[in-house]
Specification:
Two copies of one chain form a homodimer. The longest helix of chain A has 25 residues, at 63-87. The two termini of chain A are 30 Å apart. In chain A, helix 9 runs antiparallel to helix 10. Chain A has helices at residues 16-31, 46-57, 63-87, 97-100, 119-126, 152-164, 197-205, 213-222, 276-286, 315-329, 356-366, 390-400; strands spanning 3-8, 35-40, 92-95, 102-104, 113-116, 130-134, 137-139, 145-147, 168-173, 194-196, 226-230, 238-241, 255-259, 262-271, 291-298, 303-311, 333-337, 340-346, 373-377, 380-386. Chain A is of the alpha/beta class. Chain A has an eight-stranded mixed sheet with strand order 3-6-2-1-9-11-12-10, sandwiched between helices. In chain A, strands 13-18-20-19 form a four-stranded antiparallel sheet, with helices on both faces. In chain A, strands 15-16-14-17 form a four-stranded antiparallel sheet, with helices on one face. Chain A contains twelve helices and 20 strands. The first copy, chain A, has two domains: 3-174, Carbamate kinase, CATH 3.40.1160; 244-405, VC0802-like, CATH 3.30.2130.10. Chain A is globular. In chain A, a hairpin with a 5-residue loop joins strand 7 (137-139) and strand 8 (145-147). Chains A and B meet through helix 1, helix 2 and helix 3 of A and helix 1, helix 2 and helix 3 of B.
């Protein structure tokens, strides 16, 4: 007898048939005696349809009205799911974000949840009802409709689970869990039974797009056990939780993340003076370009080479900005490279194990892969390499860190 | 400088282009210095699309959830119209029924408005904003979303106009006013400049489908001047208002209404005893069949013939019920006729003019049209005739009561 908050994304509720399948799933949980709060997204395609209507009127529509518009997507889904449950003899009630109410700040289109009133949900649960809540939306203190931004339904689920002190927040998606790496790159990739919030954050931010980063942060902060499962096939999924006593048993590395969304820019021969970094990165960030990795080395001639990465979409803009500032800086030259990939090993186990980084470098060297940049954190080592070696690097590291067969979860 | 509540129906906001046209119209009213509250329906077709989704799940979906579902239709329109106004530099804010709030009872799908909070709207109007309200919807005392039933957007408009003490409630539709009769039947039909609430009620209930009856009742009750106009072409439309001093100038008859939606049933040779009417109509109404006209005459042999009309769709069911009760009553026989039409002359002027009914009967007699039933009220005389004579009767009456050229409004 547990309380589960279950979140079903757009693909999981993408048609009336899929909504009926979700209703079957919820019914089976009810049959086991569990209390269920369901959070749903808009039916897949619906949000884009609504955005297209707005863009027909104006390229940048008013953000308050945009939230009024697109919040209807989830409202349609909650009603249809409630109907499907009623049809199955399961008492259910749907609520919009404003009805719950989920109080947010007034930052339309990217609002943050401030508070959730749980009394109404508690009353319904006590009366034996399934409660269905529209994801992704809330209201500000003045009652204006707000949205949490794309993927915000995950955040709604986690926030509700935290507010209700649910036993678990279950995120149903189109993958059956979190893998040691992308199975499309490494066929022997394993589903992880457990992963820590920190590891998941590193995996997610590095391109494993299973969960929204904000929802993982939220879950970690409020210690809400989070489980990623498939809404299409049965299975235990992956539990994302705090580090616990069985960490000693854990493999050193949990997974290999990678992405090829970045590009690298280097300013060479910069006079090695204080303030150089900010003189280079200031103009970049003022153009709203996010910088990921930053490396600076002092060369023999008292000049320095300064390298950083940006999203590949921002590369051309960043390159132009450099053109302007390189002369001011008295730097020798600047170069850029879009054909790079970032590969990272992630694992809380590396905290207590020396030599993890050097094992990574050795593995890449054995494959003749040159490392262009290195960046490390307590539970992650990232390298930038030429894009063409990415798959090779991921496979080699996956094998080197014994992920290929590390885990009984592998089938 | 007036305050207008303007209601635009589904056809008037049926596409982004149409919504932009409404925004232009609202802008021109603002330019004249008027305060504007706009009530909109769902884009035409949208409500049916949503209903179809629900019916895919269940033939008779839960009514609470149905209201959650279909109320999204108007919510989409209010947001798009607000964007279109903002694009034109007009400050605007949209509100759902729940946000206003429009408080209703909890009769889902046919809720009645109990109260409207106007403070938020007043604040926006004072700040120079156009306020856009979703028609057709409200919330009950527990915050559940309710809808007023089809056509309820007219009611929202009138109720808002009453609550705000607006100078006029303007209903924009696809006709440019109320006519003396249907121009498709009588080419010389005239648009009326003015009509009383009572006349409009008789016209509407008799099949002139310009306005929802409930909204006219509401407007009459709260004395809200109501104007019907075209959203597609300019013009003064028809003002529906209370009877005033210029009624003396009014023609005796305002219009000719007609419909062919009814069927007639007669029980012949019923023993003329007390309680006969209820023994016949009781079983009919218990099957939720509405009875419109009722006529009873005593025949020479101390028996009576009892005739009534029902909606044509209910005819077969009513006929079967009669079969069962005719024997119990000891009646001689029963007959039915579906090929009938009801034609009515409507006008407050007839209150003070004798001979209106007989002029109607004379006119029909002159055309050799046999009258099957007669029913009268203070401002209306209705007759049932054979359906095949309907157009002939309407044209003859239109001419006889000088409607063909009665009015300078005619073009």
């Amino acid at each position: 007898m547990a309380l589960y908050v279950q979140k079903y994304g757009g693909t999981s509720v993408g048609s009336v048939e899929r909504i009926e399948a979700v209703a079957d799933k919820v019914k089976s949980f009810r049959a086991q005696g569990h209390d269920i709060v369901v959070v749903v997204s808009a039916m897949s395609g619906e949000t884009n349809r609504l955005i297209a209507l707005a863009k027909d009127i104006q390229e940048h529509p008013d953000s308050r009205e945009m939230d009024v518009l697109i919040s209807t997507g989830e409202q349609v889904t909650i009603a249809l799911l409630a109907m499907a449950l009623k049809k199955r003899g399961i008492d259910a009630r749907s609520y919009t974000g404003g009805q719950v109410r989920i109080l947010t700040d007034n930052a339309h289109s990217k609002a943050r949840i401030q508070d959730i009133e749980t009394q109404r949900i508690r009353t319904d649960l006590d009366a034996g009802r399934v409660v269905i809540v529209a994801g992704f939306q809330g209201v500000d203190a003045d009652g204006n409709i707000t949205t949490l931004g794309r993927g915000g339904s995950d955040t709604t689920g986690v926030a509700l689970a935290a507010a209700l002190k649910a036993d678990e927040c279950q995120i149903y998606t189109d993958v059956d869990g979190v893998y040691t790496t992308d199975p499309r790159v490494v066929a022997s990739a394993c589903r992880l039974e457990k992963i820590t919030f920190e590891e998941m954050l590193e995996m997610a931010s590095l391109g494993s797009k299973v969960l929204q980063i904000r929802s993982v942060e939220f879950a970690g902060k409020y210690k809400v056990p989070l489980r990623v499962l498939s809404s299409f096939k049965d299975g235990p999924g992956t539990l994302i939780t705090t580090e616990d006593e069985d960490t000693v048993e854990k493999p050193i590395i949990s997974g290999i993340a990678f992405n090829r969304d970045e590009a690298k820019l280097t300013v060479k021969g910069v006079p090695d003076l204080p303030g150089v970094a900010s003189r280079i990165l200031g103009p970049i960030s003022r153009q709203n370009i996010e910088v990921d990795m930053i490396v600076q080395n002092v060369a023999a001639d008292k000049t320095t080479d300064f390298t950083f990465t940006v999203h590949r979409n921002d590369y051309d803009k960043a390159y132009q900005i450099l053109q302007q500032i390189v002369a001011e800086l008295g730097a020798r030259e600047y170069v850029g490279n879009k054909e790079i990939a970032k590969v990272s090993i992630v694992g809380v186990g590396m905290r207590s194990h020396a030599g993890v980084a050097s094992k990574m470098f050795d593995t890449l060297a054995a494959e003749n892969i040159n490392i262009l940049m290195i960046s490390t954190s307590e539970i992650k080592v990232s390298v930038v390499i030429a894009e063409k070696y990415m798959e090779l690097a991921v496979r080699a590291l996956h094998a080197a860190f014994n992920l290929d067969k590390a885990d009984t979860v592998c089938e």
